[in-house]
Specification:
Largest interface: A-B, 102 and 104 residues
Distance between the termini of chain A: 21 Å
Strand order of the largest sheet of chain A: 1-2
CATH topology of the largest domain in chain B: MetI-like fold
Oligomer: heterodimer
CATH superfamily of chain A: MetI-like
Largest sheet of chain B: none
Shape of chain B: globular
Order of helices and strands of chain B: HHHHHHHHHHHH
CATH architecture of chain A: Orthogonal Bundle
Radius of gyration of chain B: 24 Å
Amino acid sequence: MTSRSLTRRRRPGEALVTGLLAACAAVCVATTFGIVVTLGTETVEFLRRVPLHDFLFGTRWAPTFADASFGVLPLLSATLVVTGIALVIAVPVGLATAIYLSEYARPRVRRILKPTLELVAGVPTVVFGYFALTFLTPNVLQPLIPGTKVFNVLAAGIVIGIMVVPLIASIAEDAMRAVPTSLREAAYGLGAVRRTVSTKVVVPAAFSGIAAGVLLAASRAIGETMVVAVAAGQMSQFASDPREPAQTMTAYIVQVSLGDTPAGSTAYLTIFALGAALFVITFGLNLVAVRLVARVREAYE
Amino acid sequence: MSGLAVPHQDVEGGMPRGVRARLRADRRPLELVFTLLLLLSVLSGVVTLLVLLVDVARDGVGSLDAGFLTSLDSRFPEKAGIMPALIGTLWLMFLVAAFTLPLGVGAAVYLHEFAPRGRVTRFIDLNVANLAAVPSVVYGLLGLAVFVRGAGLGRSVIAGALTLTLLLLPIVVVASREALRAVPDSIRQASYGVGATRLQTVRGQVLPAAVPGIMTGLILGLSRAIGETAPLITLGALTYVSFVPHSPNDRFTAIPIQVFNWVSRPQVEFQHVAAAGILLLLGVLLAMNGVAIWIRSRYERTW
């Protein structure tokens, strides 16, 4: 964009402003650094008191009991079951939405539908929590599925699934629209119909992008906090029955934060250890997703 | 979001018009059922949103009155009001905007206009992309360790605003870069051509042209930050506040925290109060989105 001659002469004012702007950009890097350092130091302190093996493989989570126990597995099981339920809802619905928007909808319909779907993504998560607790559970789940408790994992999972549909749909649609028209034309030329072109040609060709959308949705569901804090209850037990309450990692962080936990206490350190675990899991998923999106770009652009 | 879309003008479903008409005529049962299933999926989100809105409106409209807006919180549902939370949210909105605008635009301008393309920019880009996907509750832990404890700000409005600023920064950086990218290079080259320096070009030509896009991104980002609950709770923002914050150093609550507090109370009447709070929150968000859309349609230029 700029030739060398434009940058050669030093102007102190320009250098100062450039420095300031660079400092703004550095804040982004500093944030990542800050997250890693704060979560890291508190987690190290936590692990000095609780052995890593007990934390990762312990089957009882009771940090405030007299015989305290710090096994993360019950919390992790609840997080994974909620995420699983969310994906069971969000993957088919999100993929179908993407197929419709990319392969079926007329441009005018698409222009109306896309922003409408994004409205769902703009609703604050605490509102979805309210919806799960006061509408979905009593009006839909309890009449349909006997034995559903007031707080239950199922309602939270379903609502998080609805929440992440726009995320999957928009990333999958971008990937599908990047598939060259020539592939579709070739399939139509062989006599394929629109359904088979969509499912057998476009979806496989856009697979990396679709997978990236699913990974990002999983990452969002794992980190989702307010829906589970409101609707899934605060009982730390293995989430073996989705009709029962179970506490996720994020819901536990909220529960501790609501109380007055003195800094430096083990209970205070546990929320940083859980935060570190969340960060590592979501960071890993995001890295893979970014790679997958880059692969779609390389293939078709 | 519009910036992410691939422009397809008169092509639908990736196919030109003539082919399209013949495809639509396919009325075999299997094809019809498949199309119907797709349509149902698309509409399910919209329908859920409608059900949610009707449900919240039915629960909350009775409690949403002048007394609700001007009262403090209370242990009695009929007396509980949202004023401290509303003022807290307005404080947050103002401070977060004041912090995020210079930082976000500065970072975007640096990355897009000044930084040498290479490993450093790629590293910062990757950072921004990853930060955007970090769970918001983790930002709350960061704020708790750095602002509340480390900097000694306590559980104040300013600590909350700084935490939300970090959360919002990647979103605003991405949106601002999108806006800068939309300014064609010919504008920059014309400016250099008449002897302007890089800084003069950015200040005189590129930034003014990108302002509508940047503002739209900022307001949409702010509307997301205003709805955030988890990071503020993790900071230790109070959930029962019986006073109005007067300065950035005061302790505070905000509308989503207040809603969470009411939802968590056992009495059923408080669900109606919570619904009224949600209506107010959604009203604020709708107004902000309206302003963003208005700015976009009023000022945005296509080159």
